[in-house]
Write a structure and sequence with these properties.
Elements lengths: L1 E5 L4 H10 L4 E6 L11 E4 L7 H9 L3 E4 L6 H6 L1 H22 L2 E7 L21 H16 L3 E6 L2 E2 L9 H10 L4 E4 L3 E2 L2 E2 H14 L5 E4 L6 E2 H11 L6 E4 L19 H6 L7 H15 L3
Parallel strand pairs: 1-2, 1-4, 2-3, 4-5, 5-6, 6-11, 7-10, 8-13
Antiparallel strand pairs: 9-12
The structure holds NADP nicotinamide-adenine-dinucleotide phosphate (NAP).
Length: 300
């Protein structure tokens, strides 16, 4: 099958390329040159923010299925430049969805827990989004663009993505490991309850949704199975890595950040657990994989 993956240099997109390489005919789409290990895929350098190039790349390839994992993901940068956030997260998703519509291709568009305001928590797919801030609002609009334009589309929401694979970009989880290893203090928000998601797990779930559940249209939460505050998350990471050191709880309201953060944005993954063979991972199991990835990239 001909499968296109956007955001191929990213945490989830890169993991998805690694999972499918050599098994399917693959078009990996990213901006600039590939920063993932070489493999049996074709690379397209195309900008989600430019109006046409991603759509053209997907159409020229003749994709039968598309995993849309590319996005402007820096929440504070989006707040500072809402026009760019709109172009990439809404316009880019529109490009992908238009291509899928033209080709009759299945689409899974990845979205975020930030579509919720975080006042209640433990959100299910049927709960009403109330996004706050430019990133959240553009991602929510991207969801609608995908669902409206692509006839066979699912939106898969993930949260607080991390990976320990070589070359994966730094995240909260990797910073915890690096800072504690250097003897530095880690600050973590004690009042943000989240569903940390291992990128490789999200990639596996969203690819199954893309390839094996063509009948499934609508939203699915494909995050990690454990909802946890960020201090506990940091402590769990430290524990798994055998790291001691100081983890200082911080209140979100005490830190001046450009973009608002939802406080209780945990996602219920009951629907994904029932639907998918690839189950959402409990935190302890995900941290086993994270630790193994990390050990493989920096043997000690
Ligand atoms: N990361 C998280 O904590 C998180 C949380 C909730 C939801 N999500 C969602 O999960 C999905 C996957 O994100 P991720 O976690 O894999 O984050 P990521 O590592 O930041 O991946 C996003 C990818 O999109 C690419 N991109 C950004 N702007 C682009 C543009 N104008 N044209 C082409 N490509 C562009 C980035 O390219 P570069 O590598 O060149 O920057 C990056 O490779 C996104 O939909 C995101 O909104 C992520």
């Amino acid at each position: 099958m001909r499968i296109a993956i956007t955001g191929a240099n990213g945490l989830v997109g890169g993991a998805a390329v690694a999972l499918l390489a050599g098994r399917q005919e693959l078009l990996a789409i990213g901006r600039g040159a590939p920063r993932i290990p070489a493999g049996p895929w074709t690379w397209a350098d195309a900008d989600l923010g430019d109006g046409r190039s991603v759509e053209q790349a997907i159409r020229a390839f003749g994709a039968e299925a598309v995993l849309h994992a590319g996005a402007a993901t820096d929440v504070d940068a989006c707040e500072r430049d809402p026009e760019l956030a709109w172009r990439v997260n809404v316009g880019g998703t529109e490009q992908v969805a238009r291509a899928c519509r033209a080709l009759g291709a299945r689409l899974v568009a990845i979205s975020t827990d930030y579509v919720f305001d975080g006042e209640r928590g433990d959100y299910r797919e049927e709960d009403l989004p109330n996004p706050r801030g430019a990133y959240a609002r553009t991602k929510r609009c991207g969801e609608e663009a995908a669902l409206l334009l692509a006839p066979d589309c699912a939106v898969a929401r993930v949260a607080v993505v991390y990976s320990g694979r070589p070359g994966a970009k730094p995240t909260f989880a990797t910073q915890v490991v690096e800072k504690l290893s250097r003897g530095e203090v880690v600050k973590a928000f004690h009042d943000q309850i989240v569903s940390p998601t291992l990128a490789e797990s999200a990639a596996a779930m969203t690819l199954e949704l893309l390839l094996d559940h063509r009948g499934f249209r609508g939203v699915l939460h494909t995050a990690g199975a454990t909802q946890v505050d960020r201090v506990t998350f940091a402590r769990k990471v430290a524990e798994r890595f055998g790291l001691t050191g100081e983890i200082v709880p911080v209140r979100t309201a005490d830190v001046k950040l450009p973009a608002p953060r939802p406080l209780r944005s945990g996602l219920s993954v009951a629907r994904a657990s029932a639907l998918l063979r690839t189950k959402p991972l409990p935190l302890d199991a995900a941290l086993e994989t994270f630790h193994a990835q990390w050990s493989a990239r920096s043997p000690s």
